[in-house]
Design goal:
Layout lengths: L13 H5 L16 H6 L9 H10 L18
Length: 77
């Protein structure tokens, strides 16, 4: 089977380049946040709700915990 390929360029106007892209709220940042940035970020839920949210995610099988490497040492400190 033969495929014909022709290169092309997408042209943009000056109006497209003038609008800043970082004003769109649903775009992800270009880099990962640091730990300090994540800790400083305000989340839409209370810290006291986190254990309940975690339990709900486990029940719904949306997250999985890794297997224990040494279950016999689980009760040791």
């Amino acid at each position: 089977m033969a495929v014909n390929v022709a290169p092309f360029k997408l042209k943009s106007t000056a109006k497209d380049n003038a609008a800043p892209r970082n004003n769109v709220p649903y775009e992800r940042p270009q880099r990962k946040l640091t730990l300090k940035e994540m800790q400083a970020r305000e989340y839409p839920f209370l810290d006291s709700d986190v254990p309940e949210i975690f339990d709900d995610l486990l029940e719904a099988n949306l997250i999985d915990l890794p297997e224990m490497k040494r279950p016999e040492e689980a009760k040791r400190r």
